[in-house]
Write a structure and sequence with these properties.
mainly alpha; two-stranded antiparallel sheet
Length: 386
């Protein structure tokens, strides 16, 4: 519908509304600048974060403690991280945020800048809320990283402690988003972080193994979603997690990438085929015998050249692969395992595992069990699909 006055009345009406809002904002801005951020903190004592988790003031105390713990890990200045964490929720009780809640954090940054805080502290007051979603940017300043991780880990550990976890499609406290935020901050900034240590720190040093394990499992599920969206194979993630590496997310991803590259080579594909053949034989014989073969090999019972060679290379490959894993050189560990391929191929070509002599049969099954254990230094090959 075309207005007779070409929209002048509509424009005038909108201008009145916008002008009034801008006038309000100007008033709030000028009023807020009269009070320093730290002088607002007392008001946080009257704001409940959650009835079982205390006030926003108490939460700030926890975030400060955790940010100080995290600062050296992410190479942030401890004093600046402590200061940023101390002020991170102060703007919640400002006039501006009270009227316009969507600018929380942003106003904290503006007010901190105006009162002469260090740039890293000011940036952290806005960026500790980020990322708000999968397309949102992540904090990159070390101080902001420390406070953002502290804020999100405190939230997750707190709600786990009071048994308020996401269920099905329900996630009223946005805990999945918080976990994804931690994952993105860690991976996209290449942060080496032991999550379980930080969970314990968030609990103020009170060890809770069950909570740590359950929350870590939640992180693993979120990590799988994140990596699948990036094109990673879920079975390779499972294979790495099952091998023991669990709470350093950056190392998990590096192992998955190295395993993916290894399996794309002929040596990797053939070693996987040899492992599966060994695993299938072991599964059948262990079920029949009612025992689990342990890999304790009697060198005197290695009669044939092919089993002697496999016995020799297995212990060396496992040891060298483990040394590379200790140095976080996962591609190097894979290369050491690849050296097993000729010996494994020759063993299956020439050796009858289920020999008539029970002692030799048991020894050969232990040899296959040793192969199973050697591959576990880098991943649980039994979790790999296909």
């Amino acid at each position: 519908m075309i207005a007779k006055d070409d929209g002048a009345t509509i424009i005038s009406g909108n201008e009145k509304v916008v002008r009034a809002r801008l006038s309000d904002a100007k008033f709030f801005w000028e009023t807020d600048l009269k009070v320093k951020l730290e002088d607002r903190l007392e008001k946080l004592k009257s704001i409940t974060f959650h009835e079982k988790l205390g006030t926003q003031y108490q939460r700030v105390d926890r975030i400060v403690a955790l940010a100080k713990e995290l600062a050296p890990v992410v190479k942030a200045d401890v004093k600046k991280a402590e200061r940023a964490a101390y002020l991170c929720k102060a703007d919640l009780v400002s006039e501006m945020v009270g009227e316009f809640p969507e600018v929380q954090g942003l106003m904290g940054r503006y007010y901190a800048t105006r009162q002469g805080e260090h740039a890293s502290v000011s940036i952290a007051l806005e960026d500790h809320y980020k990322p708000q979603g999968p397309s949102d940017r992540i904090p990159t300043d070390p101080v902001a990283i420390a406070v953002a991780l502290a804020d999100k880990i405190d939230t997750l550990v707190g709600f786990w402690a009071i048994d308020e976890k996401p269920t099905g499609s329900k996630d009223p406290y946005a805990l999945r988003r918080a976990a994804l935020g931690v994952i993105r901050i860690i991976l996209e900034n290449s942060v080496r972080l032991g999550l379980q240590q930080q969970f314990s720190a968030a609990l103020l040093g009170k060890a809770n193994a069950a909570l740590n394990a359950d929350l870590l499992s939640f992180f693993h599920e979120r990590l799988k979603v994140y990596l699948r969206d990036k094109g990673a194979r879920h079975d390779l993630i499972d294979a790495v997690l099952a091998s023991g590496e669990s709470d350093d997310l950056l190392l998990i991803v590096k192992r998955v990438e190295a395993l993916d590259a290894f399996l794309a080579t002929d040596d990797g594909a053939n070693l996987l085929a040899g492992f599966r053949r060994a695993a299938n034989i072991l599964k059948a014989e262990e079920k029949k015998d009612g025992v689990i073969y342990s890999g304790d090999i009697d060198a005197h019972l290695l009669k044939e050249p092919q089993e002697k060679v496999l016995g020799d290379v297995l212990s060396a490959a496992k040891r060298h692969a483990a040394e590379h894993v200790m140095k976080q050189d996962f591609a190097g560990a894979m290369r050491k395992l690849a050296q097993l391929r000729p010996a494994v191929d020759a063993f299956f070509d020439k050796i009858l595992v289920n020999a008539e002599d029970p002692a030799i049969r048991k020894n050969r099954l232990n040899l296959l069990a040793a192969l199973r254990e050697a591959t576990r230094t880098v991943a649980d090959f039994s979790a790999i699909a296909g």
